[in-house]
Amino acid sequence: MSRWTPDQMPDLTGRRALVTGANSGIGLVEARELARHGADVVMAVRNTVSGEEGARRIRAIGVPGTVTVEELDLASQASVHALADRFEGPLDLLVNNAGVMTPPRYRQTPDGFELQFGTNHLGHFALTGLLLPHLLQAAAPRVTTVSSIAHHAGDGTVCEGNPREGYDPQTSYGRSKLANLLFATELQRRAAAAGSKLTSTAAHPGVSATNLVASKDGMGAIPVVGTIAQWGVRLAFPGPDKGAEAVLFAATTAQPGSYSGPTGFRETRGAVGEARRSQWARDETLASLLWERSEELTGVRFVL
């Protein structure tokens, strides 16, 4: 079987997609490729100036789909609700892509959640639930959530939401990405049980040379560390075009409930295929408990 590439994506003309964190890195590539295949793409970003620049670059290559920018700070439940409140019409595809990675010191969102858990998981959990009525207006709605090989560092304490006591950047990031994967799997399980037309998939990009490493919300909070790490990643790993492949495959082609990623060296790179899930990621009881806890923390309920 030949290697899957975004050129094999189906025609998306007439479909509407929303990609979080689409102003840079793999999110920008995802937005570009979806628009290149005809989708009307909403780039939901925290920095709208950067988002508009990204949108301009996508339009400049002559894509058939439209590209618009919306403000969204996933660390703020108020911002998530504001975007959902002003969103209108059907939504065919939601790509839960944005994320924060390994801030060196414990930080909280405005709502009092640990930054990675509150942004990576709870922000996307609430966004998906609030946009669900728009998704269900579409003929074949799809939600794709981006996890990470770092989810293997997560454990059964994921429902605790990364407490301040004993905070460790890598472990806490791993738990947040485990939460992403558990959410995607549980969403598909609940949709199937309800007889819903919604499809949920998950993917991870492997290790990709993006600005995520140098972000001031992550390792870039220590400038020297962020700069060194960013250049090291750029030298050793592929860029965002390759990193986005598994996410685009999951968003357009993969089977319901699947988890896609690179299949090369320790899943850091290579051709897209089925990704490995940790023991905790396969735990249906843990997924259900996390779902219930997420409903309690966000106040968002899903009606499938």
From TrEMBL:
InterPro entries found in the cross-reference section: NAD(P)-bd_dom_sf, SDR_fam
One Pfam family recorded for the sequence: adh_short
Top-level division of the source organism's lineage: Bacteria
Gene3D superfamilies documented for this protein: NAD(P)-binding Rossmann-like Domain
UniProt keywords, alphabetically: Oxidoreductase
PANTHER family (UniProt xref): PHOSPHATIDYLINOSITOL-GLYCAN BIOSYNTHESIS CLASS F PROTEIN (PTHR43157:SF31), PHOSPHATIDYLINOSITOL-GLYCAN BIOSYNTHESIS CLASS F PROTEIN-RELATED (PTHR43157)
UniProt protein name: Oxidoreductase
Lineage of source species: Bacteria, Bacillati, Actinomycetota, Actinomycetes, Micrococcales
